[in-house]
């Protein structure tokens, strides 16, 4: 296979999968087989691309020239490699989980549900491999539009209202802020290509530089930096596999990935460090991660608590990028992978609980861990990874972020990160503690296991195992990111 064909397949496989899924309407076994095989094919293609790029083959292709010097093009670099592997790999597990969840809850409109997923993952990969801001923006919008029907899936009033907020906030921020930032960058630098070291040094300074950075950071609404976060908890009306897609696989990770890529390849970390233009963003991200954690503590609904947890955890990536240090960039990149694995485990657990017992409120789940030990055990591992305890992957992200804060001479950020970990403990561990140690409610009491279907339980156990595996694979991720972070 040639590199050109492999890059085309990044687009062709999701489109072909959607067509075949639509053609399989009324044939659930065939539809789900197409979903799984498409996910495997896309991941295999991403793995091949990764191997070729790491061996030195340029991963570049121009699909279309829109204006002189403005192309629709892919160029694969280390951050894109990491995000591409996370998105395509977790789609496989999410697809397996979806079978158990959708069948277990007898959800309607399953063909439409499955058909939207490949386009969303294709949009995420388009963002991952984008060669410039124009390409990134196009696939950013594809991702928004393809996930909107998933948020509105249940078609009740709550789902429609949540979907309106979701679409409204993300379109308003991208069109009103992100697009003007791209146009402004074009007028300043004469290009919107992603280049290591950035393209804006010598073209903008002072208040204008800070204003341009603010347009990008708040315009990339998928990063959920407060106050642009409202779409995320509103989207919790969607089925749990969609919540997992939004919070772990595609949407929010596409947001913080875009933030990190813009900081590294458009502004340049050295330029940001020299000018101090991103210092305000450190405060904004620190405030966002702390406030979201405090809100999460007050939520009794399990998915709502996890949603605000995600708002907080995403701010780690923005914080790492804003520190404008080598360790900060590495910590931000690690957080993309580590949080994805931990948070998808927690959302899978929430869906398994709903499927098996139709419980949504934490206060109703007392004693449930005794009847769902696999689900609750996996959720405990995911929670401990997010908290940042070894031997789980989340510890490395926090370690490098703290090291980045020390490098930037912002020791107060270390304190904020430590406080955040304590808040993580306060709002995550009580979920499992109530499940294992509280006396069970009458409708929970019973003998024997009462787990969700195997298609729900096995994927969440696999992602829990992934939290452990990532602890030992952190060195490989660091080696991948180190060259663009200035550590080599």
Automatic annotation (TrEMBL):
<dbReference type="Pfam" id="PF00361">
    <property type="entry name" value="Proton_antipo_M"/>
</dbReference>
<keyword id="KW-0472">Membrane</keyword>
<feature type="transmembrane region" description="Helical">
    <location>
        <begin position="280"/>
        <end position="297"/>
    </location>
</feature>
<feature type="domain" description="NADH:quinone oxidoreductase/Mrp antiporter transmembrane">
    <location>
        <begin position="130"/>
        <end position="422"/>
    </location>
</feature>
<feature type="transmembrane region" description="Helical">
    <location>
        <begin position="137"/>
        <end position="153"/>
    </location>
</feature>
<keyword id="KW-0812">Transmembrane</keyword>
<feature type="transmembrane region" description="Helical">
    <location>
        <begin position="409"/>
        <end position="431"/>
    </location>
</feature>
<dbReference type="InterPro" id="IPR001750">
    <property type="entry name" value="ND/Mrp_TM"/>
</dbReference>
<feature type="transmembrane region" description="Helical">
    <location>
        <begin position="79"/>
        <end position="101"/>
    </location>
</feature>
<feature type="transmembrane region" description="Helical">
    <location>
        <begin position="245"/>
        <end position="268"/>
    </location>
</feature>
<keyword id="KW-1003">Cell membrane</keyword>
<protein>
    <submittedName>
        <fullName>Monovalent cation/H+ antiporter subunit D family protein</fullName>
    </submittedName>
</protein>
<dbReference type="InterPro" id="IPR050586">
    <property type="entry name" value="CPA3_Na-H_Antiporter_D"/>
</dbReference>
<feature type="transmembrane region" description="Helical">
    <location>
        <begin position="306"/>
        <end position="330"/>
    </location>
</feature>
<feature type="transmembrane region" description="Helical">
    <location>
        <begin position="33"/>
        <end position="51"/>
    </location>
</feature>
<dbReference type="GO" id="GO:0005886">
    <property type="term" value="C:plasma membrane"/>
</dbReference>
<feature type="transmembrane region" description="Helical">
    <location>
        <begin position="165"/>
        <end position="186"/>
    </location>
</feature>
<keyword id="KW-1133">Transmembrane helix</keyword>
<feature type="transmembrane region" description="Helical">
    <location>
        <begin position="452"/>
        <end position="474"/>
    </location>
</feature>
<feature type="transmembrane region" description="Helical">
    <location>
        <begin position="6"/>
        <end position="26"/>
    </location>
</feature>
<feature type="transmembrane region" description="Helical">
    <location>
        <begin position="376"/>
        <end position="397"/>
    </location>
</feature>
<comment type="similarity">
    <text>Belongs to the CPA3 antiporters (TC 2.A.63) subunit D family.</text>
</comment>
<feature type="transmembrane region" description="Helical">
    <location>
        <begin position="113"/>
        <end position="131"/>
    </location>
</feature>
<feature type="transmembrane region" description="Helical">
    <location>
        <begin position="206"/>
        <end position="225"/>
    </location>
</feature>
């Amino acid at each position: 296979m040639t590199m050109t064909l492999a890059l085309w397949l990044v687009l062709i496989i999701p489109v072909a999968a959607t067509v075949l899924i639509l053609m399989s309407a009324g044939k659930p076994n065939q539809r789900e087989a197409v979903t799984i095989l498409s996910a495997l094919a896309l991941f295999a293609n991403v793995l091949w691309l990764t191997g070729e790029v790491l061996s030195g083959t340029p991963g570049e292709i121009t699909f279309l020239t829109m204006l002189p010097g403005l192309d629709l093009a892919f160029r694969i670099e280390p951050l894109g490699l990491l995000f591409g592997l996370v998105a395509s790999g977790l789609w496989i597990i999410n697809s397996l989980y979806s079978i158990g969840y959708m069948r277990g809850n007898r959800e309607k409109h399953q063909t439409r549900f499955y058909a939207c997923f490949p386009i969303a993952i294709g949009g995420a990969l388009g963002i991952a491999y984008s060669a410039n801001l124009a390409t990134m923006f196009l696939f950013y919008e594809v991702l928004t539009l393809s996930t909107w029907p998933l948020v509105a899936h249940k078609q009740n009033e709550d789902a429609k209202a949540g979907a309106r907020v979701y679409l409204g906030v993300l379109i308003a921020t991208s069109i009103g802020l992100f697009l003007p930032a791209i146009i402004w960058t074009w007028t300043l630098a004469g290009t919107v290509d992603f280049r290591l070291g950035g393209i804006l040094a010598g073209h903008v300074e002072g208040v204008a530089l800070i204003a341009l950075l603010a347009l990008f950071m708040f315009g990339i609404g998928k990063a959920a930096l407060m106050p642009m976060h409202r779409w995320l908890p509103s989207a919790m009306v969607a089925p749990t596999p969609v919540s997992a897609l939004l919070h772990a696989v595609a949407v929010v990770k596409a947001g913080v990935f875009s933030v990190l890529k813009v900081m590294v390849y458009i502004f340049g970390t050295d330029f940001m460090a020299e000018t101090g233009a991103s210092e305000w963003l450190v405060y904004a991200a620190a405030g966002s991660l702390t406030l979201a954690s405090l809100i999460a503590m007050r939520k009794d609904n399990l998915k709502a608590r996890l949603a605000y947890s995600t708002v907080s955890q995403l701010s780690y990536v923005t914080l790492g990028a804003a520190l404008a240090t080598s360790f900060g960039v590495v910590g931000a990149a690690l957080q993309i992978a580590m949080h994805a694995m931990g948070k998808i485990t927690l959302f899978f657990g929430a869906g398994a609980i709903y499927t098996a017992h139709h419980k949504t409120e934490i206060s109703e789940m007392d004693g449930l861990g005794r009847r769902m030990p696999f689900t609750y055990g996996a959720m405990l591992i995911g929670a401990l990874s997010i908290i940042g305890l070894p031997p789980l992957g989340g510890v490395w992200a926090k370690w490098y972020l703290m090291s980045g804060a020390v490098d930037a001479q912002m020791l107060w950020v270390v304190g904020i990160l430590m406080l955040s970990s304590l808040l993580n403990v306060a709002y995550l561990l009580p979920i499992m503690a109530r499940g294992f140690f509280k006396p069970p409610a009458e409708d929970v009491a019973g003998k024997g296991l009462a787990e969700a279907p195997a298609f729900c339980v096995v994927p969440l156990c696999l992602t829990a195992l992934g939290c452990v595996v990532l602890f030992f694979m952190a060195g490989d991720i660091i080696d991948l990111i180190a060259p663009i972070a200035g550590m080599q």
